[in-house]
From TrEMBL:
Top-level lineage group: Bacteria
The keyword Transmembrane belongs to this UniProt entry's keyword annotation: yes
Pfam families: EAL (PF00563), GGDEF (PF00990)
Organism, scientific name: endosymbiont of Tevnia jerichonana
InterPro entries linked to this entry: Biofilm_reg_signaling (IPR052155), EAL_dom (IPR001633), EAL_sf (IPR035919), GGDEF_dom (IPR000160), HAMP_dom (IPR003660), Nucleotide_cyclase (IPR029787), Rev_trsase/Diguanyl_cyclase (IPR043128)
Cited PROSITE patterns: EAL, GGDEF, HAMP
GO cellular-component term (any): membrane
Residue ranges constituting the GGDEF domain according to the UniProt record: 422-555
Every EAL domain range: 564-818
A GO BP annotation: signal transduction
Keywords: Membrane, Transmembrane, Transmembrane helix
Name assigned to this protein: Diguanylate cyclase/phosphodiesterase with PAS/PAC sensor(S)
Transmembrane segments: 310-332
Residues annotated as signal peptide: none
Length: 832
């Protein structure tokens, strides 16, 4: 009875401790999940606030309010959850988080209001309206009074002196006020390519005119001393001088305000109020999370102490039990111990893999229960072993054989083929643009797409074939018992047709294509790894054909792959060594002959091969993603070149930059480009971003929204190589293009080919109908020039005007344009 009572007490203690621990674990898991949601919504709020600073679109304001409302609900839930916890510190932090959210809501709404009210946004404008402008008006009114008080009995010469002095003072005052306005405007980057230089020169002019105003006031004082200004002249002069002093004080206040960091209140508020508040909320969330982890450690400590106490209790009980064991040994040995030994022997044999061993029947009910439990465990172990065997050789997502099982079957098939003199075919497949699906629609949609691909593969292959998922979006099909290479063509066609059918997932209609490489054994190779390598190599050759293509392996593909790898290694070294640069090809106005812009064309200064064109390296550079690092590193030189060309020509000259889908789908690059435009590194309209038609057919994430943001910040967008890609007229309506560039292939034959001539004419009329300017690329003859000019084309680009030039040569070209008023005389090519 003592042992039973002690066991019951220990059991009760263990159950209570376990329930408390389970309850704490459940609560901490809920808290951790809720904390992740709160952090996610904090990031969403921060993103919306940054978008509002760039441009206060009503859609973003509504989404900000929705995110704040959802964040408030999550914090209320967190507060209720923490109220069940004993930690008062976490509860206090939850209350502080709620207060922080209220401050964040007020600050966010205040930022929205600040961003939409110009005078609050730029305090200098309010200072001008409330300080300098009233002083100017009062001073000018006093000058009018001064003129009205001039004694009519003065001689004409004396009256002329007074009128000239007052007029000169009015002139210098107006000039001083105008320069102050230009000084403020230059701070916003309106009139100067370099805002800081423009501001310094303008405020120097303000000081200059202020000195002139002061001198004229002294002149009026001298005239008053001569008795030429009437009875109230001294009072008016004092009033004008007082207003001048107040005006200058306000002007210096504006200067200090614009030189400081607070000239734009929205950015200051975002940096000094909202960002610290967001970081404070994140810090409080980290404290709550840390407190939860500390509680978990405390629970583990309590369980450890409980185990120690139970150990001591069991030790004491063991001393008492020894006596009972000695007295009951014979009985237990006969009725229990031998049965346990036999069952233990069965367990050992089961663990050694002898699955036929069954424990002997027992007399005691407890032993019978133990034997039955053992048999049930044995059955469950066998089922789990089968499941693990299946999982080890099959893909968990698609249920297809994985790489391990596929390679085993391939080796087996190769052995049979070599023995019987037969052939087998291996298809290696890769889904085209699958990464865009994952990036734009999410991994859940991508997983569902892979399941659909697996189902369609299983439907089109034969019963004797094996389809497998090797990794990611790579699949393979093993076809046994084929007679020759041509037997693989019907299967490849079926696979291509099956996978080209539209796929509807979560209201998204997806169209995919597949690149297939085919290798035949034993002609190509007789080892499994080599055959997989051959099919993989052929797949990459098929991928170069741009969608839904298949290629057979050929030995020359290995050398091509080696050359491609060598090129990739050289490109990585070239990126590290900074061997890439821009050459610039001029684009000229057809009607003025002046330089309109220069297209920045990428070049590789190879250490041994010299200057290489993009045709050699651009595809590899884009496929590897190195294009992002190259273009990002050259943006500073692009900014400097644009400013230098504009200064040489004497007017803004734009630079055009080509953007690939890889660049448009790289968030850090896009954020950096937006930041440069927001900071005013490029003047308004001085950056033209060119996109090809094929770029528009990619599934770009939020491409239209990004292009709209770029345009709102002063960039222009051009559709490059129009007519040779896969874009539709809907793209001209959907995307915010400013320019359309006609591909050189159509310009080349406009004189000799009536179809090309009609197509060029249609493109020009179509672009003008959409209010877009047109650039004719590849103009190399005067006949081509006269043709496109007669059709009303706006700009031309080609060897007739200029080849791609280095930065220094482009600067010389700009100097020629400035000196001669244009790079060519357009009137000689006009056709009546």
């Amino acid at each position: 009875m003592i042992l039973l009572l002690a066991a019951l007490l220990a059991l009760y203690d263990v159950e209570q401790g376990s329930q408390t621990y389970i309850r704490n674990i459940t609560q901490r898991n809920s808290t951790a999940e809720l904390l992740r949601d709160v952090r996610s919504h904090l990031d969403l709020v921060e993103n919306r606030l940054q978008r509002i600073v760039i441009e206060p679109v009503q859609k973003d304001v509504q989404k900000l309010e929705q995110a704040l409302t959802q964040l408030s609900l999550l914090l209320n839930h967190l507060k209720q959850l923490l109220a069940q916890d004993d930690s008062r510190e976490s509860q206090a932090i939850a209350n502080q988080l709620q207060a922080d959210l209220d401050r964040l809501h007020r600050s966010g709404m205040e930022l929205v209001g600040l961003r939409t009210e110009v005078e609050r946004w730029f305090p200098a404008i309010r200072q001008m309206r409330e300080v300098t402008y009233p002083h100017s008006q009062a001073a000018l009114n006093q000058l009018d009074i001064l003129l009205a008080e001039v004694d009519e009995e003065l001689s004409a010469e004396q009256r002329l002196r007074v009128v000239m002095s007052v007029s000169t003072l009015r002139h210098f005052w107006s000039a001083m006020a105008s320069e102050l306005r230009l000084f403020v405007s230059n701070r916003f980057g309106v009139f100067a390519s370099d805002a800081s230089v423009g501001m310094r020169s303008r405020f120097t002019n303000v000081i200059y005119y202020a000195e002139e105003v002061k001198a004229q006031i002294n002149t009026l004082k001298a005239l008053h001393e001569e008795g030429l200004l009437g009875f109230l002249g001294a009072e008016s002069i004092d009033e004008v001088e007082s207003r001048f002093t107040g005006w200058m004080r306000g002007a210096y206040q504006i200067s200090v305000m614009l030189e400081g960091s607070g000239w734009r209140r929205d950015v200051v508020m975002l940096q000094q109020t909202i960002d610290p508040l967001l970081e404070q909320m994140r810090q409080r969330l980290r404290v709550i999370n840390s407190d939860s982890e500390n509680q978990s450690a405390a629970d583990i400590t309590r369980l450890t102490n409980m185990a120690r106490q139970l150990t001591l209790t069991m030790g004491a009980m063991a001393l008492f039990t020894i006596i009972l064991v000695l007295l009951a040994y014979i009985f237990l040995n006969r009725t229990l111990l031998k049965q346990i030994a036999r069952t233990a022997l069965a367990l050992k044999q089961e663990a050694q893999g002898n699955l036929r061993i069954v424990p002997p029947p027992a007399k005691l009910s407890e032993m019978r229960d133990l034997v039955e439990a053992f048999n049930e465990m044995r059955r469950q172990v066998h089922m789990r072993q089968k499941h693990l065997d299946h999982m080890a050789y099959h893909d968990a997502l698609t249920r297809l054989p994985n790489r391990v099982l596929f390679r085993d079957r391939l080796e087996h098939a190769l052995q049979i083929a070599v023995r019987d003199g037969r052939r087998i075919g291996l298809m290696f497949m890769d889904l085209d643009r699958f990464k865009q699906v994952n990036d734009s629609l999410g991994h859940l949609v991508g997983d569902e797409l892979l399941k659909v691909v697996a189902e369609r593969l299983q439907r089109v292959i034969r019963g004797s074939d094996t389809a497998a998922r090797l990794s990611g979006d790579e699949f393979a099909v093993l076809a046994e018992g084929i007679n020759d290479r041509a037997d693989m063509i019907p299967l490849a066609d079926k696979v291509v047709q099956a996978l080209e059918q539209p796929v509807c997932i979560d209201e998204h209609e997806l169209r995919i294509s597949v690149s297939i490489g085919i290798a035949i054994a034993p002609e190509d190779d007789h080892l499994a790894d080599d055959l997989i390598r051959d099919a993989d190599t052929a797949m990459y050759a098929a991928k170069k054909q741009r969608g839904s293509a298949y290629r057979y392996f050929a030995q020359e593909m290995i050398s091509e792959a080696a050359e491609s790898l060598q090129l990739e290694n050289e490109l990585r070294q070239a990126v590290e060594a900074g061997q890439f640069l821009f050459h610039y090809q001029p684009v000229v106005s057809l009607w003025s002959g002046e330089l309109y812009c220069c297209e920045a064309l990428l070049r590789w200064r190879h250490p041994t091969k010299g200057l290489l064109s993009p045709a050699v390296f651009l595809d590899t550079l884009d496929d590897t993603g190195l294009i992002v690092r190259v273009i990002d590193s050259l943006l500073d030189s692009l900014v400097d070149q644009q400013k230098l060309l504009s200064r040489l020509v004497g007017r803004p000259v734009a630079l055009a930059l080509n953007l690939s889908p890889r660049l448009l789908n790289d968030p850090p690059f896009c954020r950096g480009l937006l930041k440069r435009l927001l900071e005013g590194q490029f003047q308004t309209g001085s950056l033209i971003l060119e996109l090809t038609e094929d770029t528009l057919t990619h599934e770009l994430a939020e491409a239209n929204e990004l292009l709209q943001q770029l345009k709102n910040l002063g960039a222009r967008v051009a559709l490059d190589d129009f007519g040779v890609g896969q874009a539709s007229l809907n793209h001209l309506r959907q995307f915010p293009f400013d320019l359309v560039k006609i591909d050189r292939d159509f310009i080349r034959n406009v004189i000799s080919d009536s179809n090309d001539a009609s197509l060029v004419q249609a493109i020009i009329h179509l672009a003008h109908a959409f209010d877009m300017k047109v650039v004719a690329e590849g103009v190399e003859t005067k006949g081509q020039l006269a043709f496109v000019q007669n059709l009303g084309c706006d700009f031309i680009q080609g060897y007739l005007i200029g080849m791609p030039l280095s930065a220094e040569q482009a600067q010389e070209c700009a100097a020629v344009d400035q000196a001669s008023g244009g790079l060519f005389e357009p009137t000689e090519f006009l056709v009546d």
